[in-house]
Design a protein that fits this description.
341 residues, alpha/beta, Nucleotidyltransferase, domain 5, 2 domains, 5-stranded mixed sheet, 46% helix, 20% strand, globular, disordered N terminus
Length: 341
């Protein structure tokens, strides 16, 4: 991270922010994704009393200055709506691969959440908490990227995958889509078997001629999400019986199977949750993966809570509050659609 050029004190003055107290009667969970940030606040019994959505706080994607501005905006919003800050703020961040130290938190937030206790962890960790509630178990995530993480019986945190689109991300929407694009281009060149993916490339990217894709991908370098969006075209071709597309989906399912076995072996458990667009929406991949895992007595399970509630669970655990049935029941009343924008 580079040194910030944002004058946070000036931003405080501009936004009329006031230094206020923090209430240990309130806890906050934040899911900081690549494009949006979801914030939820609860009382100590798990009643969600406030929630909202704002811009990204991913300092790699948006830049550290923009992330700091959005953190200041979140702090302002919480103070205005609650009259104080929550005593503990637990945030999952898609730009982190583990627990952040105090120096990292200070550099990213510039102290806008003081005097609250602030914990930053990875976004996959809060997704895991939304499934295991902090107990032993694992989570397989396959969205734009792919990764697995888990907690062992002793509370140790383990990961597998998560190396990004250049070094890995097998089983992700990006990897699936890229393999589909490559297959379509190879068929176009006549070096591999024909596939409807060739036509779908033209349609998806709005190409006048196939060579136009070069400019779309390289000048300037295309965003990861734009490539990943082609995953739906590969799935569509597979549903229509395209053999090449079907083979690609099978290959991606195999990669996710290997990732799932790696993390469950590390954590010595068969408890496996799943999250992310590929596993949530791509039935062909999920069913093939589930069939392979069945041989190891592993069943894919949907998480009980969304990642922002997973972050809130992290705050409850940090506060030393037991997640009893009443608290869990109150958290279950929360619906993502209720988030205020």
């Amino acid at each position: 991270m580079t040194d910030s050029k944002v004058d946070i004190q000036a931003l405080y003055k501009k936004e009329n922010l006031q230094v206020s107290s923090a209430s240990m009667e309130l806890l906050c969970g934040i899911d900081g994704g690549g494009t949006t940030t979801k914030v939820v606040v609860a009382d100590l019994e798990g009643h969600i009393i406030y929630s909202f959505q704002t811009g990204t706080t991913n300092h790699y994607g948006a830049g550290i200055e923009k992330a700091q501005e959005n953190f200041a905006s979140i702090a302002k919003n919480l103070r205005e709506q609650l009259g104080c800050l929550p005593g503990i703020i637990f945030k999952g961040n898609s730009a982190l691969d583990g627990l952040a130290d105090k120096e990292q938190v200070q550099q990213l937030t510039q102290g806008v959440f003081e005097p609250s206790k602030v914990i930053f962890h990875s976004d996959v960790y809060i997704a895991l908490l939304g499934f295991t509630l902090g107990e032993a178990g694992t989570m397989l995530i396959a969205g734009t990227g792919s990764m697995a993480c888990g907690l062992d019986a002793g509370g140790g945190y383990h990961t597998a995958g998560g190396w990004g689109q250049v070094l890995g991300d097998e089983g992700s929407a990006y990897h699936l889509a890229l393999e589909g694009i490559k297959a379509g281009l190879r068929a176009y060149d006549g070096v591999s078997e024909p596939t409807t993916l060739t036509v779908r490339i033209m349609q998806h990217f709005g190409l006048g001629k196939m060579s136009d894709i070069i400019n779309q991908v390289y000048h300037p370098p295309v965003e990861k999400s734009i490539i990943a969006a082609f995953a739906s075209a590969v799935e569509g071709a597979a549903h229509e019986g395209d053999k090449v597309a079907l083979r690609i989906l099978e290959d991606e399912a195999v990669w996710l199977y290997k990732l799932a076995l790696a993390i469950t072996n590390k954590c010595k458990t068969t408890k496996l949750g799943f999250y992310g667009g590929v596993l949530n929406r791509n039935e062909l991949v999920r069913l093939q993966l589930a069939e392979r895992l069945k041989k190891h007595s592993i069943a894919l399970q949907a998480p009980m809570f969304s990642p922002e509630i997973g972050a809130l669970i992290g705050a409850f655990r940090e506060a030393g509050i037991n997640l009893d049935e009443k608290l869990i029941s109150n958290l279950l009343k929360y619906k993502q659609g209720a988030i205020k924008k």
